[in-house]
């Protein structure tokens, strides 16, 4: 049986291979690739908010190929129905029975494109999928394949045909990130890597679904000291008491921060979580969960600045790493 360090090195090597393969397709977004991998290892759903055309869909397809997972893509428009997601029962005249026709969610990675353009009814169906990882059709529950995650994209609010996602749905996403525009050098590389105007997915499979679930189980067991638990709880409490924040981090948000911090620690080659890991993931894991008071400072308070101010008020625990490990 491998010892703890050998197991860490084995899984870390696999993770680096995934990053390398995704980077072959997605140019100039190294930090975003690592953050998405962290969320995947932490079994979380991902929301990418950005303008059209910056590589959100390409990123999701590259990950699905490198991880050896089945990916279904669904373009969310106002006429998309819940049954397009969940599937439906169809009567078969030959057998006299109703047969289940799978929807788009019967896969490992559901790429939900432009999620904030569809109807509330469809959003509600997606909410059950994200929370329960199963679908209900005519009172029949159907478990989704494992692993399963939603990688959703949304256009910035204010774009034509968009609407704000409800807070309850935003809270189900482990992280929300933005890719942004590429640099001139990166855009040149993107222009060279295209087929009929679309980037080529040149990433290769380096993991199986079973290997990914084994890595997720390993990350879940990353050690967390009691002082780090206390640190996360005090940060959450501070967001709820901050005069700049109307709605603070929920307990689900605290769980998400800790879960992705374990994945961040793992990618750094650690078998334990440090307060610096919590600080690094906090913005991506919590900014979309809070509501700031836009009446303050002429509306110049953002979720990011409010969280930074909160971090300054919460004392950081000092850990003796030798004793932790």
TrEMBL record:
> What InterPro entries does the database record attribute to this sequence?
ATPase_AAA-3, CbbQ/NirQ/NorQ/GpvN, ChlI/MoxR_AAA_lid, P-loop_NTPase
Q: Which Gene3D superfamilies match?
A: Magnesium chelatase subunit I, C-Terminal domain, P-loop containing nucleotide triphosphate hydrolases
The superkingdom of the source organism is Bacteria
Using the record's annotation, list all stretches that form the ATPase AAA-3 domain: 45-175
**Domain ChlI/MoxR AAA lid: residue ranges:** 238-299
The molecule here is called MoxR family ATPase
Q: Which organism is it from?
A: Lachnospira intestinalis
For this protein's source organism, the top of the classification is:
Bacteria, Bacillati, Bacillota, Clostridia, Lachnospirales
């Amino acid at each position: 049986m491998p010892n703890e360090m050998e197991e860490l090195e084995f899984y870390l090597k696999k993770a680096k291979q995934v990053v390398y393969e995704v980077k072959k397709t997605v140019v100039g977004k190294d930090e975003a690739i690592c953050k998405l991998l962290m969320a995947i290892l932490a079994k979380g759903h991902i929301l990418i908010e950005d303008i059209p055309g910056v590589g959100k869909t390409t990123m999701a397809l590259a990950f699905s190929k490198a991880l050896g997972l089945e990916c279904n893509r669904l373009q969310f428009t106002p006429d998309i129905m819940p049954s397009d997601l969940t599937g439906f029962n169809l009567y078969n005249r030959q057998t006299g029975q109703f047969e289940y026709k799978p929807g788009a969610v019967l896969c490992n990675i559901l790429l939900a494109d432009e999620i904030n353009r569809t109807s509330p009814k469809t959003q509600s169906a997606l909410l059950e999928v994200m929370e329960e990882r199963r679908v209900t059709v005519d009172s029949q529950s159907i478990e989704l394949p494992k692993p399963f995650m939603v990688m959703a994209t949304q256009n910035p609010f204010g774009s034509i045909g968009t609407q704000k996602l409800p807070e309850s749905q935003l809270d189900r996403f482990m992280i929300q990130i933005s890719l942004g525009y590429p640099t001139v050098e990166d855009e040149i590389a993107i222009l060279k890597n295209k087929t009929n105007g679309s980037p080529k997915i040149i990433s290769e499979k380096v993991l199986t679904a079973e290997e990914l679930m084994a890595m997720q189980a390993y990350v879940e067991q990353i050690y967390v000291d009691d002082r780090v638990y206390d640190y996360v709880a005090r940060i959450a409490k501070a967001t709820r008491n901050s005069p700049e924040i109307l709605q603070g981090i929920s307990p689900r948000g605290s769980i998400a921060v800790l879960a992705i911090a374990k994945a961040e620690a793992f990618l750094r080659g650690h078998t334990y979580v440090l307060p610096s890991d919590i600080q690094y993931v906090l913005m991506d894991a919590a900014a979309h969960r809070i509501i700031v008071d836009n009446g303050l400072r002429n509306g110049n308070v953002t979720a990011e600045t409010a969280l930074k101010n909160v971090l300054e008020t919460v004392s950081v625990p000092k850990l003796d790493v030798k004793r932790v490990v």
